[in-house]
Design goal:
A hairpin with a 6-residue loop joins strand 2 and strand 3. By secondary structure, the protein is mainly alpha-helical. Helix 1 crosses helix 2 and helix 5 packs antiparallel against helix 6.
Length: 135
């Protein structure tokens, strides 16, 4: 049987506060197991992946209501608004990635302009970019 995690353990492993974990649970974003010995919440380890998804979605600007819709799809419960939501945010994500690629190119140009050895600066920047795009 999988060991269940306390709120404090989940918070530490997810790099969140315990109050944030409890808040997400109150909103229904996280499911806890009841502890027969008391009223303490216990979570299985799958909650850590769910929290990573929630935090990533928040960084993209999704509201908790929107995240709730996406989690329902992720849990196998279709949502009537999820398709439009996913398309809208995918478009925003692609636009942001394009802006970041442009910014990266500008930084490479600045690096070349301000380094004693432009060839090695470009090679280092190109190597870092290929590693970033491979991940």
């Amino acid at each position: 049987m999988t060991r269940l995690l306390t709120v404090a353990e989940v918070a530490a492993r997810a790099e969140l506060s315990a109050s944030a974990v409890r808040y997400y649970h109150r909103l229904g974003l996280l499911t806890a197991h009841n502890n027969a010995r008391g009223s303490h919440r216990r979570f299985d380890e799958s909650v850590l992946d769910r929290l990573r998804f929630i935090r990533s979605a928040q960084r993209l600007g999704l509201s908790l209501l929107e995240i709730t819709e996406l989690l329902s799809v992720r849990d196998g419960r279709p949502s009537p608004v999820a398709g439009n939501l996913l398309r809208r945010h995918l478009g925003r994500l692609e636009a942001e990635m394009a802006r970041l690629r442009e910014l990266r190119q500008e930084i490479v140009v600045l690096l070349v302009q301000h380094t004693e050895d432009p060839q090695s600066a470009v090679a280092r920047a190109a190597g870092a970019g290929s590693r970033d795009s491979a991940s």
